[in-house]
Structure prediction request, 278 residues.
Amino acid sequence: FGQAVLCPADFTAEAIARQRWPLLPRGRLATWRGVVYAELANRATLGRIDPHSLRAVKSLEHWCDELAKIPLVFHPGTQWLYGYSHDVLGRVLEMAAQQPLEALLRRYIFHPLNMVDTSFAVPPGKRDRLAVMFVRTEEGGVQSAEGVVPRSAWVSGRESPIHAGGGGVEEVAGGLVSTCRDYMHFCNMLARRGELDGVRVLESRTVELLSSDLLPRVLGRRGVWCDGSPGFGFGAFGFVALEHLHLDAAWRLGEYGVVSAAGIACTIDPAKELVMLS
Prediction:
């Protein structure tokens, strides 16, 4: 991404210009670096259903190389907009450790936390436990977003070849698949500041970084809110509840969490070491 260029959404506001600031990892943690959702989803899907296509993107490395060719939508450090930043960070980890992302996650997260049902694909022996994801129709009903379970994009042999940290490189495919039990282990580890059942997975200061609002630090100003919602900042893990006149009374200061594309949400109250999955 060292040669990324800026291209405004209307293509007329200003001439294409080289980025002002480098795309540093901390900026990617807060997703403020100008890399937003681009027209790579179809090519990522081809990597899964038609890997022999010349347009198919078939690995995280390939996907990042193609993403780097797409102009930024704003200068880094000037705005916040959710996008592909966490997916790119997965590739940064691969390069730093010289190991595939899945191997790193298994070694440093899944195995220590006994997350036995978490991976990028469900093996055949566990296929009958996989739930189908549904979406609402325009008529108000619901329908499967991915067809029957045997054709699910999370079944081994049909999964996305792009193992991405954010999990959104396709429209309805990619990312980790897990269980409530495993997810609760992960969230309880965060609620207990990096340790669970006597096993330390993260340093306390790392959890503090994950759960803090990074927007003022990386943007250099206050008053920038997650999705324009006053009282909600954004950090490496997700949204963070902050002191604000209009913050919903149901939220406690310091609570943080994330909502996934499938609608599953987790909220963590570090003061009470309380976790809620919904």
About this structure: The mean pLDDT is 81. The helical segments are 25-29, 41-49, 60-67, 85-97, 101-110, 180-191, 204-210, 215-219. The longest strand covers residues 265-269. The radius of gyration is 19 Å.
